[in-house]
Write a structure and sequence with these properties.
Elements (H helix, E strand, L loop, with lengths): L2 E2 L14 E2 L4 H4 L6 H13 L3 H15 L1 H4 L13 H21 L6 H14 L3 E5 L2 H11 L7 E5 L4 H9 L3 E5 L20 E4 L11 H10 L3 E5 L7 E2 L2 E2 L6 E5 L13 E5 L2 H10 L21 H10 L3 H18 L5 E2 L7 E2 L5 E5 L2 H11 L28 H7 L2 E4 L7 H12 L3
Parallel strand pairs: 4-5, 4-6, 6-7, 7-10
Antiparallel strand pairs: 1-2, 3-11, 8-9, 8-13, 10-11, 12-14, 14-15
Helix pairs in contact: 5-11, 6-11, 7-8, 7-10
Bound molecules: pyridoxal-5'-phosphate (PLP).
The site of pyridoxal-5'-phosphate has 15 residues, from helix 7 and helix 8.
Length: 439
């Protein structure tokens, strides 16, 4: 039986990782306590290794723990996403952060949220951060704080998660969709033609982990006096030139949904802005429209990031660059080693660092390809099968089939491959081999 080592686990029930082999008098005869080297190794592993080394160690452990996965020749399945590997790796840091909140007795609007708002806004390079309960609410609150409302038009894209459009509708504005470019991002060449007298804002979506052409978006926005709210749900940490995505517009909105590059263990979102008045308005809107007291100056919502999620995000934020780097390494292997004429690989915009929230390929024979992946046990996703303008809920906007040709053509071909930082090398090898074998 493994024996619990007291002294290195501050509190809580120890997990298997927190246990070491039992002391054996036979093994220790005449020598130093044999527990000491392993204890020292464990402390070193936990406190002194760089995040990248820890990720590599963990990846080996994951392989070793799972006998089937250890030998690539018998690997039978690769998940599209697995949250528990990262949770396991961060185990102690996460549990102690949660314990800190439990000890504080403050669960909403406390020090953790305040600290995370400061840490995340300085990471992205914006002055003010306002934690809210999701990116959907972040978009809604940011638009409302910027004065967008009934009858206004907001230009965005249709190949995005439905909440980009639903948030625009929540402030009673009308989404106007433009087609995408070859990078799955807002086609800035089509932007000006979509502007009307009612246009008040642009919501570029930094889809799949890659920034849209913000230089062009901001130029057009300034020329036409439009507000810009960046949808950064899928791109925490991506760069355009030497600036982070989310530091260009009037406001930027982030999602911390568990699958995101920076994922909480529940819902979470955040608004960033350089403008104090906008930040103050967002803070009031997330809290019933109140600024401090039990008195609402305008109608607001209940949309707060809770303390436990903020504490978890504070643990994960310092690891984000390493996680993104790991995603880029896997994406680079896919890009170099997938050599199948039936597969079209994703492209990266010049001057942009793609952080591959999703690795999205295009396949003409998609139905057959998906059946093939299923039989081979390879997880996949489709982001997104129906563009928003063709979804039933948005029929009233009046878009006909064929109105956004590139968006619609992509929707029938796109497939997202397994890609998350804790994917093992053998799993990546396996995905590449299976895809190269598809005929
Ligand atoms: C591009 C985009 N925008 C907005 C959202 C909404 O984020 P949340 O789930 O945090 O509300 C998502 C979530 O998937 C997204 O991918």
């Amino acid at each position: 039986m493994p024996k619990k080592i007291k002294g290195i686990i501050p509190r809580g029930k120890p997990r298997m990782r927190d246990t070491l082999p039992a002391y054996s008098p036979a093994a220790s005869r005449g020598v130093v306590n044999p527990l000491l080297p392993s204890l020292a190794r464990e402390i070193k592993r936990r406190y002194f290794f760089s995040p990248l080394t820890r990720l590599a160690i963990n990846s080996k452990k994951t392989r070793a723990e799972n006998g089937r996965m250890f030998n690539p020749s018998v690997l039978t399945a690769v998940p599209f996403f697995n949250a528990t590997r990262q949770i396991k790796e961060l185990g102690y840091e996460l549990t102690s952060a949660i314990q800190r909140v439990l000890d504080s007795g403050k669960f909403v609007m406390g020090k953790e949220v305040e600290a995370f708002e400061t840490e995340f806004s300085s990471y992205i390079g914006m002055q003010y951060g306002v934690g809210v309960n999701s990116c959907t609410d972040a978009l809604k609150i940011a638009l409302k704080a910027l004065g967008i409302g009934t009858g206004d038009e907001v230009i965005t894209v249709s190949n995005t998660a439905t909440p980009t459009a639903s948030a625009i509708r929540e402030v009673e504005a009308t989404p106007v969709f433009v087609d995408v470019d070859e990078y799955f991002l807002m086609d800035v060449l089509k932007l000006e033609a979509a502007i009307t007298k009612k246009t008040r804002a642009i919501v570029p979506v930094h889809l799949y982990g890659q920034g849209a052409d913000m230089e062009a978006v901001m130029k057009i926005a300034h020329k036409h006096h439009l507000k810009v709210v960046e949808d950064c749900a899928q791109s925490s940490g991506a760069m355009i030139g030497n600036k982070k995505v989310g530091s260009f517009g009037d406001a930027a909105c982030f999602s911390f949904y568990p699958t995101k590059n920076l994922g909480a263990l529940g819902d979470g979102g955040l608004i960033l802005t350089h403008d104090k008045l906008t930040a103050d308005k967002c803070r009031a809107l997330r809290m019933y429209g109140m600024e401090g007291s039990y008195h609402a100056n305008f109608e607001g919502y209940n949309s707060r990031l809770d303390e436990i999620q903020a504490a978890i995000l504070r643990v994960k934020l310092p690891h984000l660059d390493v996680y993104n780097q790991k995603r880029q390494e896997i994406a680079s292997r896919y890009s170099k080693e997938i050599k199948n004429p039936l597969i079209e690989l994703p492209r990266t915009r010049p001057n942009a660092s793609h952080i591959f929230h999703l690795f999205v390929i295009k396949v003409d024979t998609r139905e057959r390809f998906l059946e093939y992946l299923k039989t081979k046990g390879i997880g996949y996703g489709i982001h997104y099968p129906t563009p928003i303008h063709l979804q039933k809920a948005y029929n009233f906007l009046g878009y006909a089939e064929g109105s956004l040709p590139r968006t619609e053509a992509n929707a029938g071909k796109i497939v997202s491959l397994p890609l998350f930082p804790e994917l093992t090398e053998e799993e990546v090898d396996h995905v590449i081999q299976i895809i190269n074998d598809f005929t």
